[in-house]
């Protein structure tokens, strides 16, 4: 029945059948996270980095209502150029498929599809979380619930800086999701290496991390893990500058009544504008760094 909805490309299928390491990659970063052509260039480079570090990349998207696990170069280009691709989270998945639309997968949806394909490692930029002022808006990303229920390890540069990181970590703790610092004691905040919040556990190598992940799933402890991999120091942004840019962008979003799934793309666009493009450069570099760690982790999990 599942074959009706999902198509795994030959390279990824061969890797999975022969117990080779595979890393899932999301597609929202291509369609909604960056402008063209940087989005497609970044996606290609991320796939190259995954290969260079010993794993097979599996970029995930929905094209014409079909779930695709592993995209061709032409499909990457199409996603990067098209303006009709729908940002697709868990709630959207059955409708995007049944209506035969094009969908870009969020963290939550990429985790769902990776799990269906039996891919256990996923590299992204930053996870969603509890939004600032969530006590009034109840705006909490579906990513967090997915992390509580789906057996995929997510390598990221922490939660996006636009979120309430403290409440995001509290939510993850309540759901029993381990938050791990890769070479750090402090949870990274996307553009910056510091957030002011500690991780649950810190690891120094992919081997050490893989051992803990295997133990978790061997014990049938359901759910994923958040692996906070800080942005490389040379690409880190000034903490105070980025915080000021975020606060200004949040005020503008509020003034313009921008809510729900439109919030994150709006805020990231405004931050890019305020930082004169420096935030986009940082975003690209942190994704590259996460792809490298995820690829090495996937190898250790085999």
What does this structure look like?
With 302 residues, the protein is of the alpha/beta class. It has a single domain, classed as Indigoidine synthase domain (Indigoidine synthase fold). Helices cover 46% and strands 14% of the residues. The protein contains 13 helices and eleven strands. The longest helix has 24 residues. The mean pLDDT is 94.
Structural features:
eleven-stranded mixed sheet, Indigoidine synthase fold, alpha/beta, 302 residues
Q: What is the strand and helix layout of this fold?
A:
Layout: E1 6-8, H1 10-17, E2 22-25, H2 28-31, H3 38-52, E3 56-63, E4 66-69, H4 73-81, E5 86-88, H5 93-98, E6 103-105, H6 107-116, E7 121-123, H7 134-137, H8 142-149, E8 153-156, H9 165-174, E9 179-182, E10 201-203, H10 206-218, E11 225-228, H11 239-255, H12 263-274, H13 278-301
Parallel strand pairs: 1-4, 2-3, 2-7, 5-6, 7-8, 8-11, 9-10, 9-11
Antiparallel strand pairs: 3-4, 3-6
Helix pairs in contact: 3-4, 3-13, 6-8, 10-13, 11-12
Rounded to the nearest angstrom, the radius of gyration is 18 Å
State the helical fraction: 40-55%
Distance from N terminus to C terminus (CA atoms, Å) equals 27 Å
Which percent band covers the strand fraction?
5-15%
Unreliable segments of 5+ consecutive residues: none
Short synopsis of the structure:
The protein has 302 residues and is α/β, with parallel strands linked by helices. It is 46% helix and 14% strand.
């Amino acid at each position: 029945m599942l074959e009706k909805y999902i198509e795994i490309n030959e390279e990824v299928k061969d890797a999975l059948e022969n117990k080779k390491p595979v890393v899932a990659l999301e597609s929202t970063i291509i369609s909604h996270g960056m402008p063209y052509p940087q989005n497609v260039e970044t996606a290609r480079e991320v796939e190259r980095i995954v290969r260079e570090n010993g794993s097979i990349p599996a970029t995930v998207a929905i094209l014409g209502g079909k779930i695709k696990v592993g995209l061709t170069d032409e499909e990457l280009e199409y996603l990067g150029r098209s303006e009709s691709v729908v940002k697709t989270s868990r709630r959207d998945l059955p409708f995007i498929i049944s209506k035969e639309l094009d969908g870009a997968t969020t963290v939550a949806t990429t985790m769902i599809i990776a799990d269906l394909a039996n891919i256990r490692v996923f590299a992204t930029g930053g996870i969603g979380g509890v939004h600032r002022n969530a006590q009034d808006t109840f705006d909490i990303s579906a990513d967090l619930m997915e992390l509580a229920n789906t057996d995929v390890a997510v390598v990221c540069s922490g939660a996006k800086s636009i979120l309430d990181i403290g409440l995001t970590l509290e939510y993850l703790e309540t759901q029993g999701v381990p938050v791990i610092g890769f070479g750090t004691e402090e949870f990274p905040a996307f553009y910056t290496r510091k957030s002011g919040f500690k991780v649950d556990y810190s690891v120094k190598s992919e081997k050490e991390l893989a051992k803990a992940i295997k133990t978790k799933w061997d014990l049938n402890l359901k759910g994923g893990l958040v692996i906070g991999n800080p942005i490389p120091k040379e690409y880190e942004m000034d903490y105070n500058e980025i915080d000021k840019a975020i606060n200004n962008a949040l005020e503008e979003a509020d003034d313009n009544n921008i809510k729900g799934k439109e919030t994150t793309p709006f805020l990231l666009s405004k931050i890019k504008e305020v930082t004169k493009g420096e935030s986009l450069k940082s975003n690209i570099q942190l994704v590259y760094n996460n792809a490298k760690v995820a690829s090495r982790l996937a190898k250790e999990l085999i």
